[in-house]
Predict the structure.
Amino acid sequence: RVHLYLIRHGESEANRNLEIIGGQSLPSVLSPLGNQQATLLGKRLKFENTRFDYVFSSTAVRAQQTAEIALELMGIDRSTLVTSPALLE
């Protein structure tokens, strides 16, 4: 049995600027709200006792930050995180 979770990254600094279309802007980091969103995600998944064999993320900094924050709060080793440019939108 397989469970697949699709999770979008938290708000990035590029998302905050309505004059910018972020697209694949890889270096855009999480905003303070994005950090809070990733934290809440990790806490919720931990509360729900969610476990992952693998976590896949694009190479975008904001996506990696979201995954790393959530994994840390869940107590899951970062070695489960696999990044790939093939996952970019």
